[in-house]
Each structure stands twice: as structure tokens, then as C-alpha cells.
UniProtKB/TrEMBL annotation:
Belongs to the transferase hexapeptide repeat family. PANTHER family: SUGAR-1-PHOSPHATE GUANYL TRANSFERASE. SUPFAM superfamilies: Nucleotide-diphospho-sugar transferases. It comes from the Bacteria. Residues 252-333 form the Mannose-1-phosphate guanyltransferase C-terminal domain. Pfam families: GMPPB_C, NTP_transferase. It comes from Streptomyces chrestomyceticus. Residues 4-236 form the Nucleotidyl transferase domain. This is NDP-sugar synthase.
Length: 360
């Protein structure tokens, strides 16, 4: 396995305001852009050439990663002029692949944090002779997901929409967002129009008699589509619950980047990360949270399960719990923001003006 396609074109609407200025895969998790963790894990599995299918804020990726040589990779970038969906994005970058028709190509999504054994998925694809192999994971409550039942050999038998009744829950297996395609299968995806692999490509292949193989891997898996999930994923990377060779330092209770300034009596716990040039004042408490580059947490503030955007400022004694603060926002002293509240980029909240806010 030497090639992969990485789908990083989504707008990250559910993650706003984190994605107003930054594409979702470039939002920092455990001190570095989330995409860094995916690229590093792919390289560790033997992938050498990756084509990034970009769209939203596409101009951000290449200046940061360049040709990929710093990561031991050869990176290329292809930008969609119009949104093409997952299948359309895969087809749109096919001309950059070097693989022969029968070679396997790894495809993965830019918003999934997983401990998937990539090499095992590729090996499953080769040994079963599949046309497409899918990483499947088991979830306790599959109602929010499309279901992927398999037979006793692991061969996929159907793709089912989100179940509406208990009787429709025929399996706890879901599509986990990583695939291996035979190169020739990619060329059968229609070009130049939106295509969904989940709704069109996979069901169409199944109907035509193609061999779609499922591999259940129930190691760590998390869709980082919401701010709460993103904060959790960042903390799990720091704590070592989610594996990544790209965490910049030892896994543990906290990650403080080299240029950050943290007061000696500040308490940073729960997998929290403090980004470059960020400052944390005396007596502040940060638990299970991410403080991004250049942000300031003033003395006595309490931050839990929250994300503080780049350049934002949190006033003294302010309490954040389950909050998302956009880049450059200013939260005055003695405020209390809880329950999933989101503060937009550049917004200002005067001191002692908010004591509690419900999810919005």
C-alpha cells in the first residue's frame, strides 16, 4: 500500500465557529492540526503518496504541509470547483494516482479520529479479493447511523438507512469512514457531478454483484463533527486513549506547547492542551479543554470541556463549561457560560453580563 486519498473538502458547518477561518481538518487537536495525526498514522502504516481532495478554504492546506516531505510523504492537492460529494471527490482526484487497475487505494475522511489498523484493512482487502473493503465499527446506539450488515464471512449484504424503529436495527455495525478501493473501481464513479459513495456508489456496486468486504475494527473511533466531540478527541489524543505518532510530546494529563506561558499555580488536567503563545494566568483551572494559539485565560478562570479559539481572551474568574469560543472573541471577567454555548469569532461579552446560557 503506497497510495491514499484523503477527503478534506467539507465546510465543517456543525463545527462553527471553529471553522469560520479554518477548514475542519486544520483545527488544532492536541497541539497540531488534526490532519497531521491522520497523515502521520497513514505514513506509519506504509502509505507514501497521498492526494488531498480539497474544497472549502483549500488555500490553507498546501502552505502548511507543502509537498509532505517533512512527514516522509509525497502530498498532492486537488481542489473541487463545485462540491462533488464523497464519491465525486474521489473520482475528481483519480488522475493523480499512480496505481495499476488492480492495486488497492486507501480512502479516508478528514474528520474521523480512529485507532484503525490500516494495514489489517488492506490485508483483508487483498486476501478476500474484494472490489471495495470498508472499515466497520460497532456502536451502542446505531440509530444515528446508516447500518452495514455482513454475512458470516464479512461480506457486506446491504446498506441500510438510519433505522426509524427498533425492528429496523438489524446490526450494530456502521460505516466508519475508511475504505480500500481497487483502483479500477474508482474509474467507474461518474465524473463531473456530485456522487455520494454511501448512497450511490456502494449500493450500486452491491446491486451489480461486486464484492464489498467489511472489516470490523472496534478500537477507538470518534466522528469529530461537533465541537463537543472535537474537544473530546483532542483530550483523548493528549491522554493517549486515541493513538497518534504526531502528538508533540509525551501523552499524559496535559500538553503545553513550548512557547505557551502558564502560571506555576494554574492547574491543567484531563488531557487539556495549551497552544503556542497562549497564556494561562495564576490560579486558573483548565480541565479536558483546548486553548488554541495566542489565546489568553486570565487569573482565576475555570474552563472545563471547552475550546478557546486562537487569539481569544477569557476574563478573570469567568467560568466556561462545554463552551466554544471563536477566534479573537473577548469574554469579560466574572461571566458564566455553559451547556454548549458558542461565542462567534470576534464577539465581545462585557464583564459580569452572562451568568448562564443553555445550548444554542
Amino acid at each position: 500500500m503506497t497510495e491514499a486519498i484523503l477527503l478534506v473538502g467539507g465546510k465543517g458547518t456543525r463545527l462553527r465557529p471553529l471553522t469560520v477561518h479554518t477548514p475542519k481538518p486544520m483545527v488544532p487537536a492536541a497541539g497540531v492540526p488534526f490532519l497531521t495525526h491522520q497523515l502521520a498514522r497513514a505514513r506509519a502504516a506504509g502509505v507514501e503518496h497521498i492526494v488531498l481532495a480539497t474544497s472549502y478554504l483549500a488555500e490553507v492546506f498546501e502552505p502548511y504541509f507543502g509537498d509532505g516531505s517533512a512527514l516522509g510523504l509525497h502530498l498532492e492537492y486537488v481542489t473541487e470547483e463545485e462540491p462533488l460529494g464523497t464519491g465525486g471527490a474521489i473520482r475528481n482526484v483519480a488522475s493523480r494516482l499512480h496505481s495499476a487497475p488492480g492495486d488497492p487505494v486507501l480512502i479516508f475522511n478528514g474528520d474521523i479520529l480512529t485507532g484503525l489498523d490500516i494495514a489489517a484493512l488492506v490485508d483483508t482487502h487483498r486476501t478476500t479479493g474484494a472490489d471495495v473493503s470498508l472499515h466497520l465499527t460497532k456502536v451502542a446506539d446505531p440509530r444515528a447511523f446508516g447500518l452495514v450488515p455482513t454475512d458470516e464471512t464479512g461480506r457486506v449484504t446491504a446498506f441500510l438507512e438510519k433505522p426509524q424503529t427498533p425492528e429496523e436495527i438489524v446490526t450494530d455495525q456502521i460505516n466508519a469512514g475508511a475504505y480500500v478501493f481497487d483502483r479500477s473501481v474508482i474509474d467507474t464513479i461518474p465524473a463531473g457531478r456530485p456522487v455520494s459513495v454511501e448512497r450511490e456508489t456502494f449500493p450500486g456496486l452491491l446491486e451489480s454483484g461486486a464484492h464489498l468486504q467489511g472489516m470490523v475494527d472496534s478500537t477507538y473511533w470518534l466522528d469529530l463533527g461537533t465541537p463537543q466531540a472535537f474537544v473530546r478527541g483532542s483530550a483523548d489524543l493528549v491522554l493517549g486513549r486515541a493513538p497518534s505518532p504526531a502528538v508533540p510530546g509525551r501523552c499524559g494529563d496535559r500538553l503545553i506547547m513550548e512557547t505557551a506561558d502558564v502560571a506555576p499555580d494554574a492547574k491543567i488536567t484531563g488531557g487539556s492542551s495549551v497552544g503556542p503563545r497562549a497564556r494561562v494566568g495564576a490560579g486558573a483551572r483548565i480541565d479536558g479543554s483546548a486553548v488554541l494559539e495566542g489565546a489568553v485565560v486570565e487569573p482565576g478562570a475555570r474552563v472545563r470541556d471547552s475550546l478557546i479559539g486562537a487569539g481569544a481572551r477569557i476574563g478573570a474568574r469567568t467560568v466556561l463549561e462545554g463552551a466554544v469560543i471563536g477566534d479573537g472573541a473577548r469574554i469579560g471577567a466574572d461571566n458564566e457560560l455553559r451547556d454548549g454555548i458558542r461565542v462567534w469569532c470576534g464577539a465581545e461579552i462585557p464583564e459580569a453580563s452572562v451568568r448562564f446560557s443553555s445550548d444554542q
